[in-house]
Write a structure and sequence with these properties.
Elements: E1 7-9, E2 16-18, E3 22-27, E4 33-35, E5 44-49, H1 52-60, H2 63-68, H3 74-85, H4 94-109, E6 113-115, H5 116-125, E7 131-134, H6 140-153, E8 156-159, H7 163-169, E9 177-180, H8 183-191
Parallel strand pairs: 7-8
Antiparallel strand pairs: 1-2, 3-4, 3-5, 6-9, 7-9
Helix pairs in contact: 4-7, 5-6
Bound molecules: zinc ion (ZN).
Zinc ion binds next to loops.
Amino acid sequence: MTTKVPQRRCVGCMVSKDKPQVLRVVKNKEGEILFDIKGKLEGRGAYVCKSTECLEKAIKTNALKRALKSEIPQEIITLLREEISRKDFIEANDDNLLKIWGLLGLCAKAGKLSYGDSGVYEAVTKGKAELVILAQDCGKNTSEKFQILCKEKNTKIITLSQKKDIGKAVGKDEKAVISVNDTGFAKSLLEKL
Ligand SMILES: [Zn+2]
C-alpha cells in the first residue's frame, strides 16, 4: 500500500514539495491575509518552502503577492520568517526521543551540560558548547537570543520537546535551554534525530 503525500508548489522556487515541507499563506473570504500554520484555513492558499531562501525570493519577486492577488502584511512576513528560523525543530519519534533522553542523562552525570539561560549563554560565548537544545515551549525571547548567539558563534542549535521533558532527562526542574559541552555526546545525540 502506498500513501501519496499531497504536493504543494512553492512560489519561491516553483518546485512541488510534500505538503509538510511548505508553509501556507491564505487569503480568506474577507480578503485578509493569514499565516495558516495548521494548513486548514479556508480560502485561496499560496505555499512557500520552509526555507529562508525561498521565502525571501517569494517576497522580493512579489510572487507571494501575485499568488494571492494581495499585499502581504509585514506582520505576516515576520511570522513566516520566525517560523522558518524555528525549522530546526526536531520531530523525533518516541524511540529516538527515549535514546536522546538517555544520552542527556549520561551527559548530565558526566558533567558535560550547562543549564538555563546564563549557564548556556556562558558555555556558548566561551566556545564550550557543542550543541544547544531549546525547548519548544522556551518562550520567544529565549529562542531569539540563543538563535542569534548560536549563529554568531557557529554553534549547532536545535529545538526539541518541552521544558519539563528536558528537565526530567537531566534530573532537574524544567529547563528551557541546555547545552551539551562535549563533541562526542553532541555527535551521538544528533545521530539520534
Ligand atoms: Zn521553495
